[in-house]
Amino acid sequence: MKATRPLPTGEYKVGTRTFTVNTGKKEILDGHTDEIRRLSCRIWYPADAEDVKNRKKAEYMNREQAKAMKQNYEKRTANGENVSECYPDAAPAEGKFPLVIYNHGYTSFKEQNSFLCLDLVSHGYVVVTLEHPYEASVTVYDDGTVLKKDKKITKRNTQPFIPGLIAMLRMIKKKGTDEELFRNFDAFQHKYSSYMFGRLDAWAEDTDIVREYVLQNFADMIDLPAGVGLTGHSFGGDTAYALCRRTDHYKCGINIDGGLFGEFGDTVLRYPFMNITSEENYKVVTRCFLDIQSDVYSAVFKQMKHLGFTDLKFAIPVSVGKLPPAVMHTNLCKCHLMFFDKYLKGQDVDMKIQEEKVTLVKR
Fold first, then answer.
1. What is the per-residue pLDDT for 268?
2. What CATH number should be reported for the domain holding residue 172?
3. Predicted local distance difference test score (pLDDT) of residue 1
4. Where are the alpha helices (DSSP H) in the chain?
5. DSSP state of 220
6. What number of other Cβ atoms are within 10 A of residue 132's Cβ?
7. How far apart are alpha carbons 259 and 268 in whole angstroms?
């Protein structure tokens, strides 16, 4: 039985629109190097409450996304299930709001955490999500062009695939200090996941390009002095970590259950950061608690699986963990709102959650 979808809890209605960013750069993925990399993006923003009264709500999935996710588009639409709590091209609400950029997980899509994004916007944020072509489940551009996932990339995550998968399962069972757990993960990534290093650089570059585009083209609704926050699930969370550690373009970031792949040399983490993880994946994020010069937080969710931190928690009963969907969503949103309210809006926030299934502490 599917769980009831959560509604945004803030005061603002949510407007949305899609746009495409042409990076002007040649694609470097094998098999696609004759193409220019284009990024399909979605912006969610606080909308004028009067304007939305005469508008229809947006689709939750377009036809191609539904097909990629093995969903029946016609049936979902006819049953009224294919709607999102936002309004296409709605007039923006008065005021300017802090910007948060979200990156999806590897082989997912830009709306994978729409419930989280909608809730953030309803509390006074602008959220932009971007899609990484061929590494998303499917990419649909505004001009109708469709790019499907490159079927070869999944097995490139760990090479060789089967030995790498076995090594990963063994690694997450090991015990030790944060430093020891990081060394275990670092040895694993250098032996089995060197491919992901290069993709991390590409995703970080994509994010920087989108940030520049959004700040230029949507400046009328963005609170520029507040700075830009980052969040993302899985590899998208790793991208947030890399950008907060390598650049000065972002004020803070959140990683949602992503292993922290990458090379960082002598750099340190100089911006506030939060790791949100399941218990089993805590052992692949401990790098974040080393080499720090700013506030760093750890939020651990019990009875959770990796995919359960996305909208899938409300759609499927397996591979998402046993933590009730409402408990997951409420606390995922709470972690984000507390963190961004503190570091983007400058509010005095007590950054703690002490519940039976969820804990948030400063490290």
1. 95
2. 3.40.50.1820
3. 53
4. 63-68, 73-78, 114-122, 161-171, 178-192, 194-217, 235-246, 325-343
5. G
6. 26
7. 18
